[in-house]
Amino acid sequence: MSCTLFINACLASLSDTERRLAEYVLANPQSVMHMNAKQFAQACGSSPAAVVRFSKRLGFQGFTALKLDLARESALPAPDAFQSAIRESDDLSTIIQKAESIHQRNIALTYRMVNADVLSGAVGALGEGRSVRLYGVGASGLLAMDFLYKGSRVGMPVFYHADAHTNLATASLLGPQDVAIAISYSGRTRETVLAAQAARDHGAKVIAITQANRNALSRLADFPLYVPSEESELRVGAMTSRVSGQLILDLLYLGYARCHPERAEECLLSTRELIRGLQGK
Question: Which of 133, 113, 67 is nearest to 230 (CA)?
């Protein structure tokens, strides 16, 4: 996961001490890379214990891991300023270039935000789940439908109802053996948050795909998987959030298929043959 990207996303939800540490990291990343926990704490008027807690809050095992991520980030090229919002004066050639830049940046940021340990836990829950229920409306509902299709083809016991109220009702029927995947870029979509809350209350594991800003949905999740908070700068609908969500769901899909390789291959072959029969081939 990306340290500075995560800090920027959740800055508003940090405590006063955490915010002081976070703002120092953002303003002095090169200096922080060469400090130990005691030196960093002194520079921020804090304590080494607070530095360790702050590092773990960001998903790192400790301050050393945070510094290693800062060093890795420093070796990456700076974001292209050309990814600014689409303007009415842009011709189609300019739009093509901007769309390419926007997608390339968003894909890179999404992968940098993936916490491998959280993803591994989510995949494990999917592999052991009695059933997998998807929750999302609007653009998030389209992502849920795509995952439903792909998951069904590898034998995953996955379910989704396009009608939000019908889908919400299923959350009250879940239990400790079930898994809920809740998708909401804002993390505040009422139907999705209510479903995640009901699933959690009934003991189901909750996987959330949302922004990293401690929103209502992320706080309910056992396995929060974050997407970049880039959408507000653009006037192009759910373009970046849709792509980010798709990438995260694809990782869950591939992880599940890896857990059940023989079953996944058998199911793919079986469904392919049936579809070919419908096509007359």
Answer: 113
Cβ pair 35, 256 in contact under 8 A: no
Rounded Cα gap, residues 192 and 196, in angstroms: 6
Q: Are 207 and 105 in contact (CB under 8 A)?
A: no
Supply 258's token pair: 């890896």
Torsion of CA 133, 242, 103, 86, to 10 degrees: -170
Residue from 33, 2, 212, 10 nearest 105 by CA = 2
**Which residue shows structure tokens 């009250």?**
172
C-alpha distances in Å from residue 167, one per residue of 29, 78, 102, 196, 260: 45, 42, 33, 11, 27
For 85, phi then psi, to 5°, come to -60, 150
The candidate with the shortest Cα–Cα distance to 142, out of 169, 122, 126, 162, is 162
Which residue in 221, 228, 219 sits closest to 247, CA to CA? 228
For residues 222 and 200, what is the distance between their CA atoms, to the nearest angstrom?
9
**Phi/psi at 58 (5° precision):** -85, -5
Two tokens at 155?
A: 């034998």
Q: What is the pTM of this model?
A: 0.73
Spatial distance between the Cα atoms of 148 and 279, rounded to a whole number of angstroms: 22
Instruction: Report pLDDT digits (tens) over 214-258.
Output: 789 999 999 999 998 766 544 455 678 889 999 999 999 999 988
DSSP secondary structure, 188-245, as one string? --HHHHHHHHHHHHTT-EEEEEEESS--HHHHH-SEEEEE-S-GGG-SSTTHHHHHHH
DSSP 48: H
pLDDT digits (tens, 9 = 90+) for 126-150: 999 999 999 999 999 999 999 999 9
Q: Is the dihedral of CA 206, 209, 212, 217 positive or negative?
A: negative
The SS3 assignment for 23 reads helix
Nearest to 222 by CA among 98, 75, 124, 101: 124
